[in-house]
Design goal:
heterodimer, A: about 110 residues, mainly beta, B: about 110 residues, 4-stranded antiparallel sheet, globular
């Protein structure tokens, strides 16, 4: 059975700092990796996707993937209080397979 | 482009009743997936439909069923509701080969 593991947090960082969120997965056949942000009472919002080893940057967000170590991370630079949310890591096999979600890491950015 | 829409947004039912939830995907998306989110279990996959065919199914009892129409709109049905079915039900649509899934606002189901 799939496992996607995340530290539940809360992870507290001061405004302007870098927030580092980590995720490990057990299914070696996984091909696609995603980070979703979920505000309280809202649905998940896709913020990053990554498919090959290395780094992928989009604005203040950087996703990092290491398939050999079965590890994916999300860095948020210049963290803002509006980044306070739960961040969900999701992993999937080829299209048509389910997204397997971790239980999320709660991030709190303090002014 | 309009996003994924789900109706109704909130629903209150009693045990033993059945419920039907609706999802309209992003225009042009042919894949619709359904998830159940609870505080204890997180996001759990129910099933996925592509071109009116169920392509994948999660580990939920047969009380949970779904279908997809020719316009890609999807419905899910839960029969004989139990208290434990209280959850946020999320629909996600996908249109490309990379399996990026975009979620609707969800339907909050409360079973009394």
């Amino acid at each position: 059975q799939k496992e996607v593991e995340q530290n539940s947090g809360p992870l507290s960082v001061p405004e302007g700092a870098i927030a580092s969120l980590n995720c490990t997965y057990s299914d070696r056949v996984s091909q696609s990796f995603f980070w979703y942000r979920q505000y309280s009472g809202k649905s998940p919002e896709l913020i990053m996707s990554i498919y090959s080893n290395g780094d992928k940057e989009d604005g203040r967000f950087t996703a990092q993937l290491n398939k050999a170590s079965q590890y994916v991370s999300l860095l948020i630079r210049d963290s803002q209080p509006s980044d306070s949310a739960t961040y969900l890591c999701a992993v999937s096999r080829p299209p048509g397979y389910a997204l397997n979600f971790g239980k999320g890491t709660s991030l709190l950015v303090t002014p | 482009k309009a996003g994924v829409t789900q109706t109704p947004r909130y629903l209150i039912k009693t045990r033993g009743q059945q419920v039907t939830l609706s999802c309209s995907p992003i225009s042009g998306h042919r894949s619709v997936s359904w998830y159940q989110q609870t505080p204890g279990q997180g996001l759990q996959f129910l099933f996925e439909y592509f071109s009116e065919t169920q392509r994948n199914k999660g580990n939920f009892p047969g009380r949970f069923s779904g279908r997809q129409f020719s316009n890609s709109r999807s419905e899910m049905n839960v029969s004989t509701l139990e208290l434990g079915d209280s959850a946020l039900y999320l629909c996600a649509s996908s249109g490309g080969g990379l399996n990026e899934q975009f979620f609707g606002p969800g339907t909050r189901l409360t079973v009394l």
